[in-house]
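Q: How would the structure tokens look for this protein?
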Amino acid sequence: MIATSPTRPTDDQIRDALGAFVGEIMQVPPKFSAVKIDGQRAYKLARAGEEVEIAPRPLWVEELVMTDRPDADHVTLEMVCGKGGYVRALARDLGEMLGCLAHVVWLRRVWSGPFEAEGALGMDEIERLAQTAELDAHLRPLEDGLADLPRVVATDEGAARLRNGNPGMVIAKDVEYGDECWAAHQGRAVAVGRYRAGELHPARVFLTAPAED
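A: Here is the predicted structure in token form.
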């Protein structure tokens, strides 16, 4: 316990405050996070008792709404945001704005990209199917995770260069210079990167088995 407050905001006060956290905001990650400071993880420095200063980062919040107020001490919120957001930091900042202080009690990610919680397996089911072929049957193809990005097609030579981490020639449609996209070769994902003048400049390369004939 690091601080307490007797203040409890009303429902209307909470709703009014949420607007400040929608759109393009600047957020300071928690001290106990994996953010690197001078090459070291912030949580390691914090656990060692060192004072750390973390620079604020931009975050896009599409939606933030209150869905329930079980009692004076708790509120249920639903948020849609871009990558890199810290829900713990949002609760911290909201609590400071309202003067009541706050922290996250329970957090559940219901979807990310093309994946939804309703299509996932629970831990009990995973443990039951552990080390069986039935569990493998539930694995989704790598390409499913790239559905939100534009797709370009690598030439044979381009795919070989991409697999070595070099820019490779691709065939692109409806992709602009500098767009983030993923390259496929023979139907399999090769890399993710930026499209520039007929080539994909890879940021991540996928080492996968070649497609079967």
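The chain has two domains: 11-107, 142-205.

The chain has a mean pLDDT of 91.

Upvote if useful.
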